[in-house]
Write a structure and sequence with these properties.
This protein is mostly helical. The chain contains four helices and no strands. The chain has a single domain, classed as Four Helix Bundle (Hemerythrin (Met), subunit A) (Up-down Bundle). It starts with 9 loop residues before the first helix and ends with a helix.
Amino acid sequence: MSTRVEVLDPAAVERLRRLGGDEFLVEMIDLFLDNGPKRMAAVRDGLAAGEARAVQRAAHSLKSTAGNLGGRAVQQTAQEIETLAAEGDVAPLGELVAELATRFDALLQRLETERSRRA
């Protein structure tokens, strides 16, 4: 099980806001809210199909996009999944993918709250 990390890093959110203002931050959040669930589904689908490479690619993509927004817990867990999937065996990933899903849902809630504050 992963160590405890922040769901959403406020410093990362503030960096994005400083970079392009609230409008830019909302745009970045919207992109994640639109694409993140597709990436999470791809992780689950790859796991269900036993396709380690598909899990690895989807976890990598989710790791990167969550990291850009400061979704540290999702980023960390996706990194663990990506690393293990690179070994070619999805069997040990079930618990980590479940943890990722929980952290992902928490991140979505935090981002929706952040979006409503900024929009």
